Amino acid sequence: xxxxxxxxxxxxxxxxxxxxxxxxxxxxxxxxxxxxxxxxxxxxxxxxxxxxxxxxxxxxxxxxxxxxxxxxxxxxxxxxxxxxxxxxxxxxxxxxxxxxxxxxxxxxxxxxxxxxxxxxxxxxxxxxxxxxxxxxxxxxxxxxxxxxxxxxxxxxxxxxxxxxxxxxxxxxxxxxxxxxxxxxxxxxxxxxxxxxxxxxxxxxxxxxxxxxxxxxxxxxxxxxxxxxxxxxxxxxxxxxxxxxxxxxxxxxxxxxxxxxxxxxxxxxxxxxxxxxxxxxxxxxxxxxxxxxxxxxxxxxxxxxxxxxxxxxxxxxxxxxxxxxxxxxxxxxxxxxxxxxxxxxxxxxxxxxx
Length: 353
Fold this sequence. Notes:
80% of the residues lie in helices and 0% in strands. With 353 residues, it is an all-alpha fold.
């Protein structure tokens, strides 16, 4: 028994060390591929003294909201002896691994399951992490769909321009988002782990692996799917609360773009109405950039895709690509700092273990 426990502990330690090393390599690659001069960084970041402080500090409560959503889901499944502080720590590291690994989910979800399973068991840890990830992605689809509708509304009131190419892009974004919402609704009703396993079995070379996984872990997979479907069916309050908190986080993230545009002297009018319109444009810029970057999400840290996304998104509102680059510089530097902090937290020993 002790030997098996030691072997499992060793395997988990190797996994975490591998994730930490991959994260470090990704950060180094990011820094050396960030072709920006110190003068550009200084002019963009320190043009106003409050910008770096506001952008860095605002992400502390944003990560806290995500952590609380995960905790709500976990508590909705039964008694939970994990505090918000520990969930907060794991969440920051998880978001860093999402950012630094290809396709995101290759690092964060396994890491969080490994950290949590000693407290609540493997099945519950797996289902809570998958449910949080589903909620996070599901909210993104609603975020993109809302942005497409919002732009059309602003265009109808003459506050933004509409043309055929932009209309096609908006229609594609709306249809893509609606398709994602539909798929996730079905996943919430029926579970999706077993279906994903069956789908994997259709890929070349993975049919036998898929069959072995189902034979060996079939009961556990059915239990995880049952726990996923229970969130929306038996705990609708938990589902609505977690969704609304996640969606509010998407809205609050728009303040990052809003602060950067304000620091650059960008205005969409005067007075409160002008600031409100600038915030709505910030919401749209973030949504369009996020959609573009996530479609190409296989690139670690979304190198180049987010920069290109910002450069394209800001031009829709009559701003120059240089402003888009300035926004991407600040966001990228903030991301590097928080990712490094997340990797540091990964190495901090937990006395409660």
